[in-house]
From TrEMBL:
This is ABC transporter ATP-binding protein. Keywords: ATP-binding, Nucleotide-binding, Transport. PROSITE patterns: ABC_TRANSPORTER_1, ABC_TRANSPORTER_2. It comes from Novosphingobium kalidii. Gene3D superfamilies: P-loop containing nucleotide triphosphate hydrolases. It comes from the Bacteria.
Length: 316
């Protein structure tokens, strides 16, 4: 199946010489939720702006729905929704009128029933006659989502959709994003909240200094780059690591009372190694009082990739 969005060799260099995007390649599948992760200044918003016509690329191609964005920009843009990071909207407009106006901007006929359904899905219907400026920050962000959905986009960009909202509202908005996907909308989101990507995304891409360093299925990424970390508290201090543990990634610390294992690859090898370590300690007559074991999270993998510690290799 042809990608709903295909980006090849995308470059953006600003006046003054700063290059925000350095030959980005990225393919987005129809119907997926794709999370683009990266630190501030990595190029996430520039990439979205290039697709949505807010940033003019210096080089490269963008194809959406099988057509070239440069050649068919107006018709293709009408099929794309954008929820920007900044709360830029007419603060003095009532919610209902503002969302309806967004639909008209794309040349669509008024559809009160559609607008009502969108506002109800985002818990905004009771606020429909209030001016946007009177709403809370979280409600204002919901209005941005409603405005982006008003023209029934097939591809929806969410740039930091839950920035600045509390945890309860953030999780409620996650549910709304999942419902969008169920209705057939392809969703691309950027986020600072790693748990957001871990909760919702089918695939994850990581961008660093204007380059995509990795794209993979979320579960595959966790399996390939994940690791196990275990801290074993010993009853009596050791002078050295036991010979039975030679070859395993184990260190001895805390004045000889703590064995630390860091290894595995997310496939279960780490857990097997920890079981081997505890068995070897028991056979050697070495008592331990506690084991603290954890598997790496997507956040751990993200930090390793951004800081250049992880080995990449998956293509977009």
């Amino acid at each position: 199946m042809e990608p709903i969005l295909e980006i090849r060799g995308l470059v953006k260099t600003y006046k003054g010489g700063f290059t925000a995007l350095k030959g980005v390649d990225l393919s987005i599948r129809k119907g997926e939720i794709f999370a683009l992760l990266g630190p501030n200044g990595a190029g996430k918003t520039t990439l979205i702006g290039a697709v949505c016509g807010l940033v003019r690329p210096s080089d490269g191609t963008i194809r959406a729905f099988g057509q070239d964005m440069h050649t068919h920009w107006r018709s293709l843009r009408a099929r794309i929704g954008l929820v920007p990071q900044e709360l830029a909207t007419d603060m003095f407009e009532p919610v209902l009128r503002s969302v309806g106006h967004s639909r008209g901007l794309f040349g669509l006929a008024p559809d009160p029933a559609r607008i009502e359904a969108i506002l109800k899905s985002l818990t905004l219907w009771d606020k429909r006659n209030e001016q946007i400026r009177a709403l809370s920050g979280g409600m204002k962000r919901r209005v941005l989502i409603a405005k982006a959905m008003a023209h029934e986009p097939e591809l929806l960009f969410l740039d930091e959709p839950t920035a600045g909202v509390d945890v309860e509202l953030r999780r409620d908005m996650w549910k709304q994003i999942a419902l969008m996907r169920e209705r057939g909308t392809t969703v691309i989101l950027t986020t600072h909240y790693i748990e957001e990507a871990e909760e919702m995304a089918d695939r994850v891409g990581i961008i660093r200094q204007g380059e995509i360093v990795m794209v993979d299925e979320k579960d595959a990424m966790m399996k390939r780059l994940g690791r196990t970390e275990a801290h074993i508290t010993l009853k009596q201090p050791l002078a050295a690591i036991p010979d039975a543990l030679t070859g395993l990634p184990v260190t001895l610390g805390a004045q000889g009372t703590m064995l630390t294992y860091r290894g595995g690859d997310g496939s279960g090898q780490g857990k097997a190694d920890v079981a081997q370590i505890t068995k070897a300690l028991t056979l050697a007559g070495i008592d331990y009082t506690a084991i603290d074991q954890r598997e790496s999270s997507l956040e751990d993998i993200f930090v390793d990739l951004v800081e250049g510690r992880a080995v990449t290799g998956a293509s977009a």
